[in-house]
Amino acid sequence: MEALVVSCVSSFYKPTPIHKKFNFDKSTPIPRSCFSSTSKIKSRSTKGFTSLSSSTKVLPENVDPPEAELETETPNDKFEWFSQWYPVMPVCELDKRVPLAKKILGLDVVVWWDRNENTWKVFDDTCPHRLAPLSQGRIDQWGRLQCVYHGWCFNGTGDCKFVPQATPDGPPIHTSKKACARVYPTTVQHETVWFWPSTDPKYKDIIKKKKPPFIPELDDPSFTNSFINRDIPCGYEIIVENLMDPAHVPYSHYGVMQLDKPPKVKADREGGQPLELSVKKLDVNGFVGRQEWGSVKFIAPCTYCMYADDDPVDVQGNGSAKSTGTDEALVRPKLSGQQRMVFFFFCIPVSPGNCRLIWGTAKNFGSWIENIIPKWIPHILSNLVVDSDLYLLHIEEHKIMEVGAANWQKECFVPTRSDALVVGFRRWMTKYAGGQINWGGKFSPTSLPPTPPREQLMDRYWSHVVNCKSCSYAYKSLNTLEVSLQVITVVSIGIVAATKQGVMSAAVRTMVVSMAIVCFVASRWLAHFIFKNFHYHDYSHSFP
Ligand SMILES: *[C@@H]1O[C@H](CO)[C@@H](O)[C@H](O)[C@H]1NC(C)=O
Ligand SMILES: *[C@@H]1O[C@H](CO)[C@@H](O)[C@H](O)[C@H]1NC(C)=O
Ligand code: FES
């Protein structure tokens, strides 16, 4: 195996917290001037990340990611973006009656249910006739995918079965190779449809040679899984970094995600603290690492897992390793005994500046709660968590694009171990994956879509609700309820107004009027609730 064992990144980030190095009291904020030589930092090369661990008393100028120190035995390994499985959608959000369009890795695909073969199919979303999107089509009565522009039909292997415009006694047009829809290799794993981004027939049976990344807990019947997805107007790299960065949680999710155990000494209101993160082993396939409350695994390009264990399995082996970090934990679930939990994330590149996140948990306890509470309720919180990062990340991405992704190490100042996983990811990108996503020549690598208005940036309806069965159901039901409340209001007022004095006693009249008022207030409140939770929540960090 070409895996290289790197002496852990942490050894370059000697765990001395910066405030100790400078002999600052813990509660004293580090003076900004200590960091003011940024221009020098920016201009130096990325070589030699040693001085943070040396005993220098001033901030070393050559603080850089530990890039130069990592060794590889197989320097020529190259990550091929188009030779990987990509998740399309969780099966639970797909409708067997409706073809669904998705963009992944710049490719427009349609996923549809082939009832003749009982499998999900992923086709290029382009009709061979005049390139209309097949995803707008329907499944015909024989279970074929029908293009709704002129009615051409395709079976599960992409063969054209019917051209309505062809004369019965003419040449058999539909048998022509040019009449075929292009088919991507597809598989279902972890209750999710995956596809291989090449329609070249030589990859038809690629599943026999290579499978999507496997997360044992997601296939274990003693575990319950939950899935949620959202389209995100930020690029893949930015979102992957965000997932690998627990240090932002107490700040950008302040008041949204709770600290499980606040630090013993709180230096600020939010309770940020030094975090002991490290990358243990990095190769062309990703890396494994540690964070405060367990191990983490990045399986390139899409999969990221965080294992929450009180006695975490050592990433290299056998479960004997204990966390050497501090006892404090961020959002660590309280686990006991045999309880195990995995947070999994699939971060899917869509196009420059856009990705799709499918995430959830697999856990072997407490599943009855999930069975009682409808999914859309926890989704409100999950969406709020996303919203509270979105604007920051969107702007951050544009700044990085301005300086060039290749200059990430030079422009960003990442001197503490809390950034170790992010640094590991950037290292994987530059070392193996060409420094940026290969879009197959489709997009200019240095251009991002312009920043949309905030309503669009943080839109929840198109980015989540329409792609989530539970939320669309709740959305429709709550809207119906809102209309019903309005109808009751109007009808009650109408009755009171139309009834002659004396026919209705004063008590009844008061009751009907009160009901009208209550229903009116409730409908207004509901309208606000629906807008805020299913359309747009203008997240403010100043007033969380
Ligand atoms: C699709 O049609 C082709 C050509 O008629 C046939 O060979 C193939 O078996 C069909 N595939 C399915 C899934 O029915
Ligand atoms: C398990 O961990 C112990 C202690 O670190 C180590 O000595 C041993 O070799 C490991 N065993 C396996 C099977 O990895
Ligand atoms: S474009 Fe699809 S049938 Fe004409």
From TrEMBL:
Subcellular locations according to the entry: Membrane; Plastid, Chloroplast
Please name the Pfam families in this protein's record. PaO, Rieske
Q: Which residues form the Rieske domain?
A: 85-195
A Gene Ontology CC term for this entry? membrane
Q: Where is this region: Disordered?
A: 46-71
Keywords from the UniProt entry: 2Fe-2S, Chloroplast, Iron, Iron-sulfur, Membrane, Metal-binding, Oxidoreductase, Plastid, Transit peptide, Transmembrane, Transmembrane helix
> Per the record, where are the segments of Polar residues compositional bias?
48-57
User: For this UniProt entry, what is the primary localization, expressed as one broad class?
Assistant: membrane
Kindly give the InterPro entries that the UniProt entry links to this protein: Cholesterol_7-desaturase, PaO, Rieske_2Fe-2S, Rieske_2Fe-2S_sf
Query: By its UniProt entry, which CDD domains does this protein fall under?
Result: Rieske_RO_Alpha_PaO
Iron-sulfur as UniProt keyword = yes
- Can the keyword Aminoacyl-tRNA synthetase be found in this entry's annotation? no
GO molecular function list? 2 iron, 2 sulfur cluster binding; chlorophyllide a oxygenase activity; metal ion binding
For this entry, the protein name equals Rieske domain-containing protein
Q: Which organism is it from?
A: Acer saccharum
Upper classification of the source organism reads: Eukaryota, Viridiplantae, Streptophyta, Embryophyta, Tracheophyta
